[in-house]
């Protein structure tokens, strides 16, 4: 009798705590997301005599593909105050087949930087198959 009571109690508990909720809340495939892995704003003081060359900024994409993929990197003008002569990076990156992460190599020069940190925001340009995710926020200032 004791076993029947325990079995009934477990069955009742399971019936009351189980749910039938469906989490299929989207109508179509959302595609991939590509973004940067920087957590906070990256603050870089730059000297006129010692520029920062090929600083690696990590990025990710949420899907793997069997072919190489190329993405465009853009400056978010409305959030950027740094003049373009103070930085450089390749405006396209290629993710090799079967890879999900990589690095954008960023260089900074002190041509016209001020003594206060100024923001530079870069992002991936969205396309028909990929959504732009987290942006990279970098702050540059003169170290002189």
Q: Can you tell me about this structure?
A:
With 144 residues, the chain is mostly beta strands. The protein has a single domain, classed as Immunoglobulin-like (Sandwich), CATH 2.60.40. It is built from one helix and ten strands; from the N terminus they run H-E-E-E-E-E-E-E-E-E-E. Strands 5-7-3-1-9 form a five-stranded mixed beta sheet, with no helix packed on it.
Provide tags for this entry:
11% helix; elongated; mainly beta; five-stranded mixed β-sheet; Immunoglobulin-like; 10 strands; 1 helix; single chain; 144 residues
Spatially, the strands of the biggest sheet line up as 5-7-3-1-9
Order of helix and strand elements from N to C terminus: HEEEEEEEEEE
Report the span from N to C terminus. Answer: 85 Å
Number of helices: 1
CATH level-1 class: Mainly Beta
């Amino acid at each position: 009798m004791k076993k029947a009571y325990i079995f009934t109690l477990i069955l009742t508990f399971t019936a009351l705590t189980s749910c039938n909720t469906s989490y299929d809340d989207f109508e179509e495939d959302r595609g991939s997301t590509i973004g940067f892995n920087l957590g906070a704003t990256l603050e870089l003081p730059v000297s006129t005599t010692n520029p920062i060359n090929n600083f690696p900024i990590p990025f990710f994409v949420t899907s793997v593909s069997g072919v190489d993929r190329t993405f465009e990197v853009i400056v978010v003008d409305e959030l950027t105050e740094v003049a373009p002569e103070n930085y450089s990076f390749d405006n396209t990156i290629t993710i090799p087949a079967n890879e999900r992460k990589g690095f954008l190599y960023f260089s900074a020069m002190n041509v016209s930087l001020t003594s206060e940190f100024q923001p530079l925001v870069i992002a991936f340009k969205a396309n028909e198959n990929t959504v732009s995710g987290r942006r990279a926020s970098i702050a540059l200032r003169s170290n002189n």
